[in-house]
Amino acid sequence: MPIYEFHCEDCDRSFETLVRPGHAEDAECPDCHGARLSREMSVFAAAHGPNEDAPVSDGPVMGGGGACCGGGCGCR
Predict the structure, then answer these.
(1) Does residue 17 carry a pLDDT above 80?
(2) What are residue 19's phi and psi, to 5 degrees?
């Protein structure tokens, strides 16, 4: 499951949480239980690969090797 970073619009708190793919809208703030959340770009996601909110780089796409170790092997 991916870790997403959110910012709660109700209590102004930022937090990380595990979210099942396709269920980011089900997340809630662990402090105030608010649902008015904005998803933030994590430093890890920005450095290690594209996400659905970020543009894809023009660099070469490598792969086809099965399991990846998270970017250390050069695939993305």
Answers:
(1) yes
(2) -135, 130
Place of tokens 């770009």: 41
Domain that holds residue 44: 3-48
Retrieve residue 39's tokens. Answer: 């998803």
Q: Report the phi/psi class of residue 22: left, alpha or beta, with left for phi > 0 and alpha for psi in -120 to 50.
A: left
Copy the structure tokens of residue 30: 């662990």
**pLDDT tens digits, residue range 27-61?**
899 999 999 999 887 666 556 555 555 554 444 44
Residue 29 lies in a domain: yes
Handedness of CA 48, 50, 54, 58 (dihedral sign): positive
Domain tally, the chain = 1
Assigned token pair, 36? 């008015």
In a domain, 58, yes or no: no
Q: How far apart are CA 72 and CA 68, in angstroms?
A: 8
Question: Per the domain annotation, does 17 fall within a domain?
Answer: yes
